[in-house]
Amino acid sequence: MTPEQIHELGLAQVKEIEGQMNAIAKRQGYADWKSYGAAIRHDPKMMASSREQVLETYRNYIAGMQTKLPDLFGILPKARLEVVPVETFREKEAAGAEYQEGTPDGSRPGRVYVNTGDFEHRSLPEMEATAYHEGIPGHHMQGSIAQEMTDLPNFRRLEFYNAYGEGWALYAERLGKELGFYREPANDFERLGSDLFRAARLVEDTGVHYKHWTREQMVQYFEENSLEEGADLQAEVDRYIAWPGQALSYKIGQLKFIELRERARKELGDKFDIRAFHDEMLDGGAMPLDVLDERTNEWIAAMKASK
């Protein structure tokens, strides 16, 4: 894709997602998504009351998702997953949550590190989408299945491609919706806020590196088209300036998985099986998106030819 195509895609995605967020906001009695988002982010009842509540919230969402995985996947990871607190010395700098893969021999489980510092300012509705992204069916699912494919060469079992790995994790956030999760309106709204955040990155990254936006233009666009604010917003802007292209990987990758799924569904008709499709997406290890596209076409052809 050209930078211009990515920029225009970002603008279209932002518009579409904001429309979905407006619909939820209006159902909750708010004028628009901005006012509903502000209400959630500044409501003490929506914030954690203890470090332990932060941990338990993540653990509960992951446990709930665990029971539903057979509905969407044939291959399930053997590796265990733990939710543990970020080390105290990292709390001021660490993200809200992050994933660390376990070891290939299984001696250390995969871990979602959750930042429990400053817990009274940690939004509970945000945590559901993040739990699926960092844990299952996101990073833990993808990374562990790849590690356990011992017939693959190590570079395919252990490598990480941003657009594939982050794209899968963002796609995984949507799977929770398909399974009937995000039962609370605020949680579903924050799921869309997460998606909006990644869509806005398409505009921001190409804005600064292709259209030569100033830092002030980037800040203004984010203020108008995301739920980010304060130091987090400023840090994100600096990240895109310093690391060209990386922030594009989430949304571009997610859209590729959605595209491939719809292609397979259309081509295979009654032969389409969502579990077989997801297994095909994961059992080859991480790979560039163009290779994933070719591999999926070959799988579709093989499925068509099967009895």
Estimate what percentage of residues fall within beta strands: under 5%
**Count, helices:** 13
**How are the strands of the largest sheet arranged?**
1-3-2
Query: Pairing-aware structural class of the strands and helices?
Result: mainly alpha
The dominant shape is: globular
Order of helices and strands: HHHEEEHHHHHHHHHH
Computed over alpha carbons, the radius of gyration is 19 Å
**How many distinct folded domains?**
1
Question: pLDDT average, as an integer?
Answer: 96
Largest sheet: 3 strands, mixed
Distance between the termini: 37 Å
Q: List low-confidence stretches.
A: none
**How many DSSP-defined strands?**
3
Percent in helix: 55-70%
Description:
The protein is mainly alpha-helical and 307 residues long. It has one domain. Helix content is 61%, strand content 5%. It contains 13 helices and three strands; from the N terminus they run αααβββαααααααααα. Strands 1-3-2 form a three-stranded mixed β-sheet, covered by helices on one side. The protein is globular, with a radius of gyration of 19 Å. The chain starts with a helix and ends with a helix. The mean pLDDT is 96.
